[in-house]
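Example record used in the benchmark description.
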Amino acid sequence: MRFAPLTAEQAAAYLPHSQQGFADDLVRAGALDAERALRKAVADYSSLDEGGTTYVAGYADIDGTEQWVGVIGWALTGFDADHEERTLYIYDLEVFERFRQRGFAEGLLAYAAQRAAEAGADAVRLTVWAGNDSAEALYRKVGFLPEQQRMRLRLSER
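Model output (structure tokens):
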């Protein structure tokens, strides 16, 4: 795989897709209804260059042609208050649907881990929303371990 920063054109095309994906995760996890989830996603991620986040495109040779197969976005967060570790936090990872199940997600994660090590980070962290079993399986496969679990009781449903 080859990796390069997202171009302005790629970022403009990817942003609404990323916002919708985040909203879908919130809905699938039962955190918000669809309308509120999309409002939150748009508010939280109004651009891809906020907060020092780095977005990288992954490219792969598909039938003799280099194609854009996915995206990973991360920020080096400094020291994690709970762990006192310099942490690279992954905010976004996607392999586009038609390229899934070919090892590209593992390649994107390995690249992020390499960049984290080069930056002196002690850990790579990310969040997996409830119900995203395929993502959780991927992260476990490459060595991520669960650290905590959050639970909620919705008072409006009692």
